[in-house]
Amino acid sequence: MYGEYVLRRLGTMLLVIFLAISINFLLPRLMPGDPVEAQLNQLMATGGGVSDITAMVESYRARFGLDQPLLSQYFAYWQSIFRLDLGVSLAAYPEKVTDAIAGGLPWTLGLLGFATLVSFLVGSLLGGLMGWPRTPKALRIFGNGVVVLSSVPYFLVGMILLYVFAIVLRWFPAGGGIPFGLQLGFNWPTVSAVLWHATLPAISIIAAEIGAWALGMRGMLVSVLGDDYIALADAKGLKPGRIFLRYGMRNALLPQLTKLALALGHIVSGAILVEVIFSYPGIGFRLYQAIQSKDYFVIQGIVLLLSVSIAIAMFILDLIYPLIDPRITAKGK
């Protein structure tokens, strides 16, 4: 029954998370060279403080037991995972990896969460209307224009918006998450400043993604128009709006929801190019900085967070599927 179905899906999710953590542990250790020593040599070459870097190396090796056999390191890594301790940043020692992720995660979740949901809702509805035979022609033409816009990369849309509205018209800031010197707090000045800085990045993501959602939904709706339940509902004399929403959109929505779950799972990785263009202080910008400075353990922490979030998103989606479409049962028939 449904309880057994939930247990099976839970077991699958835990297996995926186990494999993701194990691979995340092995990959840095299979890479040639020692990232800690590489960072030490780089900072020594640029005149960095040798004593601080030496303390960083000793702290890292003691924390993860790098002088121990690989199996001992693996168990120590799992212990650190359960303690939510992902180590320290190589480029910003002694900052913890969890602190680096926590500093950028709220910005990314707010920006990409809002942009993804808006583009999904608007794009799916627009795509459904484009595939519905009774849709006015003017709306179809508008939808085709939106689809054409989706072929433009979102970072290019961001660069155009940045040039027009931030440099030429100066209606919006050119970068950052808040004005310089503003103290964050739960008040209207902070909220308005955050929204003001996030407007252009959000518009660039939404404008580029709506067309993709619309194309997917239009194709799925067209594929269900010839099904018997659509003809039966029409023969019963149901209102066109009800047929469109309850019989057309609902039955064409499952592939969109799968794509939405994957998109939401990928949110924690950030929109790297958009965040870099607008200097937005999210996870994507933090990942870009970590790649530039070869901060392997920050990269490792963000990749681990991404893997776990995708597994959880797919688990939640598996639980919702049977509730959305009665054709899917807990027995998998």
List the helices and strands and how they pair.
Layout: H1 2-30, H2 35-45, H3 50-64, H4 70-82, H5 97-131, H6 137-149, H7 154-168, H8 188-224, H9 228-235, H10 240-252, H11 254-265, H12 272-277, H13 283-292, H14 296-324
Structural class: mainly alpha
CATH class (first level) name of the domain at 104-296: Mainly Alpha
Estimate what percentage of residues fall within beta strands.
under 5%
Q: What does the oligomeric state look like here?
A: single chain
Molecular shape = globular
Question: What this model shows, in words?
Answer:
With 333 residues, this protein is an all-alpha fold. The protein has a domain at 104-296: MetI-like fold. Helix content is 74%, strand content 0%. Helix 5 (97-131) packs antiparallel against helix 6 (137-149) and helix 6 (137-149) crosses helix 8 (188-224). The longest helix is centred in the middle third of the chain and has 37 residues, at 188-224. The chain starts with a helix and ends in a 9-residue tail after the last helix. The model has no long low-confidence stretch (mean pLDDT 79).
